[in-house]
Structure formats: C-alpha cells, structure tokens
Amino acid sequence: MLSYVGRRVGISLVQLVGLALMAFILIHLAPGNEVRTMLGSRATPAQVRAVSNSLGLNRPLVTQFFTFIGHLLTVHFGQSFTFNQSISSLISERALPSAALIGYGTLVALVLGVPLAITGALRAGKPLDHGIRIFTTVSFAMPTFWSGLVLALIFALKLHWLPVSGYTGGFVGIVRSLTLPAIALGLSLLAVVVRTLRSSVRQVLSTEYVEAAQARGFSTPRVLAKHVVRNAIMPTVTVLAVNVGFLIGGTVVLEQVFQIPGLGSLLFQAVEQRDYPLVETLAVLSGGVVVLLNLLADLLQAVVDPRVRLGAQGG
Amino acid sequence: MADVGVVVEKFARRRRAFRVKNWELTLGLVIVGLLVVAAILAPVIAPYNPNAINILHALEKPSWSHLMGTDFVGRDLFSRVLYGLRVDLLVVAVITYVGLAIGVTVGTVAGYLGGWFDAVVGRIADTVISFPFIVLVLAVIAIVGPGLKGVAIGIIVVGWALYARLARSEMLAMKEQPFMLATKALGYSNTRAIFRHALPNLVRSSLVYSTVDVVVNMLVLAGMSYLGLGQQAPGADLGSIIAGGQEYLLNAWWITTIPGAVLVLFGIGVSLIGDGLTNGELSMATI
Amino acid sequence: MSTSPLLEIKELRIAFGRSHHSAVAVNNVSLDLGVGEVVGLVGESGSGKSLTCRSVIRMMPSSGLMTATEINFDGRDIMSLSPAQLREHRAHNVGMIFQDPFSCLDPTKRIGEQIAETLRVNAGLASATAHDRALELLRSVNIDKPEQRYRAYPHELSGGMRQRVMIAIAVSAKPKLLVADEPTTALDVTTQAQILTLIKQLRAETGMSVLLVSHDFGVIAQVCDRVAVMYGGYVVEFGPVRDICTRPQHPYTRALLESIPSMESAGRHVRRAGILGQPPSLGDVVEGCPFASRCSFATPQCRSIEMTRRTVGEGHTSACPFVGDDLVSQGAGPIGRADSTEGDAS
User: Fold this and answer.
1) Is residue B11 part of a domain?
2) Is there a smaller number of Cβ atoms within 10 Å at the N or the C end of chain B?
3) CATH class of A93-268
4) How far is C50 from chain B (nearest CA, A)?
C-alpha cells in the first residue's frame, strides 16, 4: 500500500511542476510588453520600468520561474494590479461560492444520475433505458449558460421561486442563489455519470457474486446497495475527478450568467483585463485542484478495492 | 454456471438479428446533414441580411415573416442563426480536426519511436489534460486576445493532447502486431511504416472520439462567444446571439432559447453519430 | 433410500424467448430427493443440469421462462411463492455453491465479513455473534487459522479455500438442502477430493440433503446415493448410483460411463471412447429422443417416442424403451465410438 501511495503521489508532484512550468511559459509567450498592456498606453516608460522591476520581470527567466514556484509554495501570489489587492486575499474571498457551486453541481449530477444509471442498467435495452439515454444525450448537448438561462427564465422570471442572479452567503443564501446554476452544471455532467455508472453496474450485475448473493436470498435493494453499487461506483468516482476540470470550466461561464462573485468570474475578469499574474496563478491553482482530486480518487480506489493496492489485476 | 451462460448467449445471438440496424447513425447523420446544408446555403436561405437593423420591428415574436422572431434592434433571428451556425460549424470543424491531425500524428510518432521524444510528448500531453479545458483556453485568449482566432488557438492547444494520448497507446499495442513487425523486417523507413501503415489504422478510434470532441468544442466555442471573448460584433455566432438576448429574457424569450435549441440539436446529432459508430462497429470497419 | 421426499420436481420446463420461437432448455424434468439424501445431476454442458438445479430456488436468467406442474419443497410449492417468500426460501432452506468460487465472492469485501453478512441478514444475528459464528463456520469447513483468514480478501486465498468459504456461506443458515453446481470443476484433483469429502462430512453432521451437479461421473459416483443423467434438456435415466454404474439402461448413460478412465488403464496410453457427434444445441427442434442422432441403437421409432421414463429396476427409471439388460449383456458395442478426444463429455 505504502509503495503504491508513494508512486502515485510522485506522479502528482511531477504533474504539479509541469502545470506550473506550462502556465509560466504560456504567460511569458505573451506578445509585447505585458507591463505596458497592464498599465495601459498612457503609462510613462519610467512607470513601466518601475513595475517591471517590482515584478522581477527583468531578471533571467529561470530565476523568475523559481521565484514563481517559491511564491506558489509559500502561498504568496503577489499583487493583482487590476484589483489593487493581493491575489491571495482575492482568491480566499472568492473561493467559497465556486467551491459550493462545484460541490452542489456534482451533488445534482449524482442525485439525478445514480438512480437513472441503476434503472438503465436494470432495464438495459428496454424502452426506459433508451429514454434515459436520450435524456442524457440532450443534457450533454446543452451549453451550461443556455440551460442556466432557460432555468432562470422558468424558475426565476416566470415562477419567481428563486432569485434570477446574485449571490448571498449563509447556507440558505447559498442554496437559494446556487440552485439554478448548480442544476445547469449538474445537467452538463449528468451524461458522463449516467453512462459510466450504468455500464459498470451492468458489468457488476452480470457477475457471479451478484448471482450468488441473490441465491442467498438477499433482497434486490440490499444486493444493489451493498454489493453492486459498492463495486460499480469507483469508475464513476474516477470519472468525476477527471471531470472536475470540466466543472471548473462550467463555473467560469455560469458565474457570469448568474453574477456569482466566484473564482470563475475572477478569472474571466483577469482575462479581460489581461492581468497576467492573476491568470497565471488561477490557471495553476485550478490545475492543481484537478491533479489533487485525481490523486484522492486513485487513493480512495485503493482503499475500496484491495486489488488495486497490490497492483494485481485479479481475475 | 457456464452452462447457463452458454444457453443465454446462444439465445441472445438469435435475438440480435431482429434488432433495427443502427438508427442512431442514420438519425444523427440526417440531423447534422440538415444543419450543415442550412449553414452552407445560408446566403440563399436567409430571408434577410443578418445584420440589417430595423428598429420598427424590434423584439418581434416568431411569425411567418420572422421565423425565429427579431432581436432588440429588429434583426431577423432566423437569418442571424443561419449565419451564426455557419461561423460555428466552420470553426468547430477546423479546430477539432486540426487538433486531431496534430494529436494523432504526434501520438503515433511518439508511440512508434519511444524514448525521450515519447517521454516529452507524454508529459506535455498529461499536463495539458490536467488543466481545466476552459481555463487553459481562457489563458490563451488572455495572451492572443479575444476573437475567434484566440478561441481557436486555445482549443487546439488543448485539444491535440487527448488524441495524442489515444493514438500513442494504440500505437504501442499495434507496434507488436505482425503487420507492423513485417514493415521492420521488410526494411521500410520509419516514415513509411508510420504514415502508410500505422496511421490509417489508428485514425479510426480518434475519429469516433472526435464526435464527443466536436460537441465539447462547440459548447466551449459558444461559451466563449457568450462571454464576449469569441466572435466579435458585428459578426454573430450562436453564443453571442444568446448573450445578446439575456437582457430581454423575460420580454423576448426567443432570442435566447431558439439559438440555444439549435446548438442542442447539433450536439444531439453528433452524439447520435458517435453512438452509432461505437455500436455498429462492423458497419464502419472501412474507416 | 429415504421415504419422505424433501424435494419433488414435477414436469419442469425452462424455455427462452416468446412462445412461437422459443428454445427449450429443460424439458419435462421430474426428480425427487429425500431428506438427507445426496442426488447427482450429470450431463454434458448444455444438457440443462445447471438450469434444473437453479429451479430449486427459482433463479432464472432474465430471458428464461420456467414452468412446472409443481416444485414441492418440504411441503411448499416453490412455484407459488411470493417474492418475499422466495427470498425466505433462498435464505433459509437452500444453500448454493457454484463452479467458480472466485467470481462468486465479492472481490472488495473480506471473506469473514461476507460470511457474517449472510448471518446478519439471513439469521438476524447481531454483529458480534455473527463474527463469532463466522469464525466457527470457517473452522467447520476445515480452514486453519480462521482468525487470520477472516480478514483475507478472496484474491488472497487458494481456489480450494475459496470454495470452502462458499460452502461456509451456503451452510451458514443450516439449510435443508445444499445445491452444488459443479463445485469441483475449477479445482485440481487433490483439492477436488477434499471438497467432496467436506461435503460428505457436512452432510453427515447436519443431515442436510445435497443436490450435486457435475459433468463428471467419477465425482457423482463418489458422493451420491442416486443420480439423474441429463441429456438435451431431459432426464434420460434416474436411479441408485450403484445400479446405474453397474447396469446402465440408457445408451447415453452407457456412453458416458465408458468415457471415464478406469483404474486398470491408469498410467497406460489407452484412448477412451468419446461419444460421436455433438449434443443438440438450444433452439434445435428435436422430435422424439434427442440422443437418437448419436445413438447406434437408434431406430426410426426413436424420432417419435415420448420422452417419459419407465421403471427398469427398483427405483430405477430410463427413457429409452429399447435397451434392456439383455441387449447390454450381448456385449455388442452399442455405442458409436470415436477414437479421439473429440466429443469428450466435458
């Protein structure tokens, strides 16, 4: 187990360094003088030089990269020029709405997806299964911003059940302001959840240990809950972890639709303003979140399935 | 247990013959085909100039004279959707298949050669895939600047990596197959072995995967245009048309919902083609 | 043997598909099994023996349709049980073990927990009691160091050990009947003997009945009191094992017995006789006797006979009307032979 964890953590570390390097290279590929872009055309050469010096932009690239890594490791992301605020405090202010939206959206996808997947697997090839498949195909094809707007039109503008946009804190506030974007986000993820889980449930249902459990007189709900889902859920957990990046992307757009002050809208503003240090930091952090969640998913799989940690394929 | 398995399998084989053959592929091709034809023929079909402003007819409901209604300055939505679709389809096709071409080539060569080239390509592809797709596209847009060019470059920078990974792993498996070993024994050059013999076999699964990619890229492209980072005014694509309707959502629902529905229809069509290709493996054996 | 039957299957039929083009896998099978008795079901794969033994707990593949005049188990008709009653029946009356114990155990759970789960759910034991009882069961199926094995995962055990675990689960509810579907097929010969001994031992201790399915007459002969020979979905011969081994009445039974390597041939290169041809496959519509096409005794009448068994000895029935003791004792090679390994009854 320990050697497995060690190997897996090592892979993630390499990926994290790769992320930082790639973000760094991307930003330094930027055409023209980034300081001039940031300060606007009216900046005097002296101002540009001063800011360049304070950012360390005139030092060699390698030095700059290690400074960047050092800042990442010590959570000193520097200053955002467009917001006149330290990047760390910007991020900590804005993290909660985005995290809540991603969590809530995943919850929606699971609450809708798990029953649909199990139903589809139990009724494989029957009309109900086809119906579920068509539904998930449609949900996959919907742009999140569009389904968000349609939901807002129906549930906010017409029915007045929920606010059209904006964000309020507190549990009730979060639930009220994030329900519509979370449904939009969850719907976009639904197809992946249903397809992955349905096929692994089908596979587990056809195994002999499920047959043996039924032969023992266990009820169908018990067999499903204790044996089938337990054995079938891991591919879905992995797929969810892989799709966190997709969800993060979804929040960028949805936070604009619903005017939620999260990291997604922060990134959007940073891109619009060409606030390169902020874009760089957010890109690395979001990639880091994806890498870490994938690591967690793999470690969780090793805990759940004893065969993984031995590296055995297990016939 | 084996006994029961044999019985059931034999029975299932008998049943399969009764199944309708690949309706998904047919329906998907029809949907996508109609949309593509409509987009190509936009100048012929469109009843109005998509950018012609007519304030007197602003925010009109769908009617016989304006099939999809009009927007806040009275532009005919049906014409705008046709032209917007034209832009989106062209951009999506280009970015997806340029990404596919780069990815499959790089992945195949990496898998065939192995060594340091393979290691470098593998690391870069893994890193690109670790980034959230849209975040990386946004970072590229921040550098290149808003507009379709920025979006296209951003999506290609990300998009090639999955194809490279797919092609690489298939190449590794194929390398051991007799016909590839034979190219070595016959003294073919690496280039010939890769491009004449391996690539045609590898492209197939990438093409099947591209049906998912086309939908995702279309959604990202529309998303960027919705954010104002894609197609710039006065040009329009579906994302920017939807964004333009947001303010008028309650009074003029059609500006937002109808172009979005066209996007959804396209996504469904492409997904159906993908399903058809994966189900009816045999019918596509020629690809 | 026993006078009070525990299980009586009457005219069992299992078919796949809708009425007009259905494929019949088990046809007109009637069997009985006494309290404490061990009955074998022997036949080639596809003969319907696995489906037949599953009918005892009414467990069919989703496309299978099972009908019977009656399946009487200890005074109750299995065919008329409600789903809840059926679960009760599976939980308490019948224990089942299968050919491949590895795939029958949940790969992600410790084997002790799998036994304890059965005890908790089916016998309603508290967790602590279930734990102790599971250890006891592991001991009773001759697994040494049970405390240690309790915490093992299925992939950490040997094949024989896994089958012992399956047996422990099967007998945990003290069932009246143990159904063993090819329990030794996936095991090597030494382990096979140990598992058979264990089954015999448990039967002697608990007095449960056993329905043992195997393609191997050798296994059947070691353990069973009576044996039913199945072919093409029919029981072609049924009777005491000793009687059938010495005086097989049906040509198929004879062929099957002749394909077993005997003690005399051990160590020498003697090719055993196989049975020529292929058994009918599911969906083939066979009129009359399904063995007729492979039987060298076959007459045109065989294609139209009714497949019902008639008494040919004490407690001994056969579905073939033409072969009696006289014919067999003539020593004429009645069975088509193939001097090859093809057609081996496995």
Assistant:
1) no
2) C
3) mainly alpha
4) 6
